[in-house]
Amino acid sequence: MLQLLANIEGLRLGTGVIERLVQEGDARSLRYVLQLLTPASILATLACHAQIELEDVLELDELFYDAKTSAMLSTR
């Protein structure tokens, strides 16, 4: 599913990206992971990468929260 959506969007994924996104999907949700593809693409472009690299995906962990985590943080 992730690879298919990346292909439809014209995104190229580097080594280990799909595996990392699958881990994120298991821990959070598929919707969250699918929504990460666009910001990952933007980060990759800003870093002058020809494709989305694992480091771009890892940086997203520092920038975005899934809905459940965000809700938990806002109740504190």
List keywords for this structure.
76 residues, 5 helices
Structure description:
- By secondary structure, the protein is an all-alpha fold.
- Helices cover 71% and strands 0% of the residues.
- Helix 2 packs antiparallel against helix 3 (30-46) and helix 3 (30-46) packs across helix 4 (54-63).
- The longest helix has 17 residues, at 30-46.
- The radius of gyration is 13 Å and the shape is globular.
- 20% of the residues are buried.
Task: Please tell me the total number of domains.
Answer: 1
Query: What would the principal axes of the Cα set say about the shape?
Result: globular
Biggest β-sheet: count, sense, barrel?
A: none
Order of helices and strands: HHHHH
Q: Which range does the strand content fall in? A: under 5%
Summarize the SSE layout with pairings.
Layout: H1 2-9, H2 17-27, H3 30-46, H4 54-63, H5 67-74
Helix pairs in contact: 2-3, 3-4
Short description:
The protein contains 5 helices and no strands. By secondary structure, it is mostly helical.
